Amino acid sequence: MSRSNKICSLAQARFRNYARCHEPAEYRVRATLSTGREFLIYLCQSHMSHAWALAEALLERRIDGDPDARLECISFHQLKQARPAAPKSVASRAA
User: Fold this and answer.
1) 86 vs 1, higher pLDDT
2) Which of 36, 40, 54, 77 is the most buried (most CB within 10 A)?
3) Cβ–Cβ under 8 Å, residues 10 and 21
4) So where are the chain's domains?
């Protein structure tokens, strides 16, 4: 799946206080743990303000025998959106 086809991670995971979301992802969030491990979350614009809380919730689900692991930081990367096809110019249509 290419970057432009990613959907918000809330389409795939269930969270107690969030409804499912099927919007296109506009951001890739890299969550870094105190153990050095990392994981990615893809979020739409409306869920970006909840990135830290969502990363913490995923951390609680993914801890593999390391109860001391904690979320250290998150970084954001804006994904390129698929551009609509540009209309042909008048000059090229006349040719």
Assistant:
1) 86
2) 54
3) yes
4) 3-94
